[in-house]
Write a structure and sequence with these properties.
By secondary structure, the protein is mostly helical. It has one domain. It is built from 5 helices and no strands. Helix 2 runs antiparallel to helix 3 and helix 3 runs antiparallel to helix 5.
């Protein structure tokens, strides 16, 4: 899971540097960083649910971004992250 978060975080940061990038990418990067911290700390499901919901809300602010490959990948991350039981798993 951590590897997936790292990969998406790197892609979000690269995409944010492009002209006319989705305006919420810096906020999405912050949520992804917080998700990494949550994995390291083994936070409760309540914290994970909040982070997953935050990510979903940010991604869906603009439907064209949500339907993009990056937006879809971010949305596909949210639910497994919320349900994760082995917080320190690298899968």
């Amino acid at each position: 899971m951590k590897g997936r978060v790292d990969s998406l975080l790197a892609e979000v940061r690269r995409t944010a540097e492009q002209p006319a990038a989705f305006g919420y990418l810096p906020d999405i990067a912050l949520v992804l960083e917080r998700m990494k911290t949550s994995l390291d700390l083994g936070e409760t499901s309540q914290h994970r649910e909040r982070l997953a919901a935050s990510l979903g809300r940010l991604v869906t602010e603009q439907m064209s971004f949500a339907e993009s490959p990056l937006g879809g990948a971010l949305l596909r991350l949210a639910d497994p992250f919320r349900q994760l039981r082995n917080w320190n798993s690298d899968t």
